[in-house]
C-alpha cells in the first residue's frame, strides 16, 4: 500500500513544490551562458584525444604494471611526485613511500585538471601511463585516460570509468584534524527530528527529467528537494551527479544513511568496502516508493548502517585516512603486498637482556604468525590479506600494513586431527591436560606491568613456575628512575624485563618485538593468579580469539543522560579489566574490540583471591579514580560516535573434573 501523503506536513509539501517549481523553471528557462569547461589533462572533445581515450579504455588491470619494476616477492614501494596538497604529503609519508624513484613500483602523479607536461618517469616506461597513478584533485572536471595509468578522481565522463583500473572518489580532502570527532554528531538517537523528505507533488516526473539534463549548480538546487538538514535526517537521497562524491561525504559526516539513486554510480573503493552494509541503491524511477520502503527497516538495521557509515567515512574522510586506503587498494589491485608492521623495539634491562635459566623443562612454541613476522613471507601474507580483505576493510581495522595475524581465522573441521596433512593435535603439548579445539598447538605470553611492586611481581613469577602453555614472561618496567635489582626467580621459561618509554598503563598494550605468540595474558603486579585459572582462561580465549577474556569485570551505566563507569553490575558486565585478561596481540582494549567485532567481553569465574597480598595501594584507591573513568566513558563514546560496549551475562565456569586444581 502506498504511504499516505498527509503524513508529511502540508506546509513542507507546499514549500517543496514551490522550490521544485523554481528549480525547474531555472533549469528550463535560464539563458545564462554555459561556463567554459576547465581544461582537463587531455581534452576529450578533440578527435585525437577521443581516439587515445578509446584505446585506453580497452586496458584492464593486467596491462597497468610492468613487473620488472615490481617484484611479486617484495613489498610495494611508491614514489610521489612533488605536489602541494594534503593528500600528496600524506602519501609521501606513507610507509611504502620512497624518495628514490629508482626503487619505486608505482609513481603517484597529481593534477588539478589543467594541461600539464608529464613527469619524466611517465616517459621512461615501456608504454604511456604504465606503473602510474594519476590523482585529479579538481572535483569540477574529469581527466580522460591516455594510456595504462590508473585514474583517481571524483567524477568521470560518461563511459570513461574503468572499474578494474580506476577509483571513483574525491582526492581533494583536508589534513587530518584530531578535533574533528568533537563536532561530529552521534549515530544516536534512533529517531531524529525529521524523516526523509520526499516531494509528493505533480512535478516529480518533471524533476526526474530535469535531473537527467541538469548539472553543476542546477543540480545543487534540485538537491535541496530531497532532504532537509542532514543531521536531522535518518536517510539522505544522493542522486548521481558531478558532485556525488561530495554529497556522499556530507551524508556520512552527518550520520545520515545514503540512499544512492542509481545502480551504476560508482562508489569509493567499491571493490573493497561492502557498501550494502552502509547504504541503499535504488533507481531514480523508484523515487516515489522509497520512503515507504525505508520505513519498513528495523531499528537495529538503522543503527548498524549508521555505525558502518561512520567506519566507511574513516576510510576517506581526510588525507591521512585516504592515503592508507588508497595504497591498500592499489596493493590489492596490482597484487603486490604491503610491508609488515614493524614491532615496537624493546629496551631490555635485565642482566644480559634476559635471565638465563639452567634448563628449560618445556618446549617453547612460536606462533606461526610470529614466524611470518620475522621471515616476511610475501606469498603467505598476501593470500591471507586477500582472503579476508572485505571483512578487514568494512570492520575498521588498520590498512597500513599487511596483517601478520587475523584473530577471526576459522577453526579446522572437527575431524582434522585424524587426517594426514594437518598439524592440529587435540592433546596439548608436553603431556599437559588437553586444550581441545582443532587449532594448532600454541602458548601464551604473560605480560606483567609493574611500578614499585617488586615483591608482587616475584610472587606472580613463582606462581607461573611450570605453568602449562606459558611461552615467556615479560615484565614491563614502568619506573623510569630505577632498575630491577636483587634476586629474581628463574623458572622453566624466559623472564625478560622491558623498560617502558614512559610511565603509563598503555605500556602493556605495545606490540613489543619480544612477543612471539598471538595470545597474551595481561597481569597487574598485585594480581592473585593460579595456574589452573590461567589454563582455563587460555582455553576460553582459544574459542573466543576476537574477544577480551578475563576475570575482573565492570560495566557502564547512564546517569543524567551521560555515560558512567560502574564498579560491579548485578548480573551483567560490559567491560573486562585488563589487569587480568587474555587478549589478542592486535586487539587489546574494550572499546576497540567491541567496535571492531560487535561482541561483548567474556567473563571467567575467578576461584582464587583477586589480590596477591601486595601492600602498595593501586590506582583505584585514588579519590578521583571513578570520576576520571566517567570522563573516559564519555570521551570514548564521542570519539567513536556511539558507545560500542555491549552488555553480557555470559560467564565461563570451569568444569572441575576437566581442569586440574580448580
Automatic annotation (TrEMBL):
Domain Exostosin GT47: 106-285
Boundaries of every Glycosyl transferase domain copy: 444-586
Sorted UniProt keywords: Disulfide bond, Endoplasmic reticulum, Membrane, Transferase, Transmembrane, Transmembrane helix
InterPro entries in the cross-refs: Exostosin, Exostosin_GT47, GT64_dom, Nucleotide-diphossugar_trans
Any one Gene Ontology BP term: heparan sulfate proteoglycan biosynthetic process
A Gene Ontology term for the protein's cellular component: endoplasmic reticulum membrane
A Pfam family per the record: Exostosin_GT47
Family, similarity comment: Belongs to the glycosyltransferase 47 family.
PANTHER family reported in the protein's UniProt record: ACETYLGLUCOSAMINYLTRANSFERASE (PTHR48261)
Record's protein name: Uncharacterized protein
